[in-house]
Amino acid sequence: MENYKPKILVLFYSMYGHMFAMAKAAAEGVIEAGGESVLKQVQELVPEEKWDDGIKAAKKAMSEIPVAFPQEDLKGIDGLIVGVPTRFGNMSAQMRNFWDQTSSDWIAGTLIGKPVSVMSSSATQHGGQETTIISTLWSLMHHGLIAVGLPYSNQEQMGISEISGGSPYGASTITGGMGERMPSENELQMAKSLAKHNTEIAKKLMVK
Length: 208
Ligand SMILES: Cc1cc2nc3c(=O)[nH]c(=O)nc-3n(C[C@H](O)[C@H](O)[C@H](O)COP(=O)(O)O)c2cc1C
Fold this sequence. Notes:
Elements: E1 7-12, H1 18-32, E2 36-41, H2 53-61, E3 79-87, E4 90-91, H3 93-99, H4 103-108, E5 115-122, H5 129-141, E6 146-147, E7 172-174, H6 185-206
Parallel strand pairs: 1-2, 1-3, 3-5, 5-6, 5-7
Antiparallel strand pairs: 3-4
Helix pairs in contact: 1-6
Bound molecules: flavin mononucleotide (FMN).
Flavin mononucleotide binds at residues 14-19, 85-89, 121-124, 127-128, 175, 179.
């Protein structure tokens, strides 16, 4: 199994940088597990003239990250990690826009039998991280992807001494009402562990 180096796409959307931080941690996890990570962001839909200072700063920090093309970037991958902020308890329109352009890969069955993990962020502790992860997985399962969550062997999700995202459904972070809280070490560790787990499963699935 040592020779298998799965290519894992870490595909994210981030408006204020929280999911970007989680996606970078996930990309590190892929590499630590012996995979090749490809970090890409989906296309922004909010017109630039509407960006506030927080969005401008985040977009500047993410400017080097390539934008994924729905008809190209799903081909040839062995696993997928999706990072998407909560919008009213559901995935953001930017991420939905990406997936709504993937019919040709759905018809071709490009993603059938590959592992997928989802990460999310929300302003409040119970603002819909878990519903966003689960409802995103529903859509991804239409592509034949296999849902991979975060097992409880990852003890970071057990702690109650500090505020933290993270659940068996996937890694997540709590941003605060004004986006003032960036992912904690605990949350970043869960993003990394989720990606490692996904990569290790991708490796096993590659064994012929
Ligand atoms: C239109 C909109 C809807 C949102 N809906 C929710 C929500 O349902 N629950 C919540 O806790 N936060 C909600 N938020 C806050 C975002 O989830 C938060 O800004 C995001 O997770 C930050 O991640 P990012 O920096 O990667 O964009 C919403 C934000 C916007 C702009």
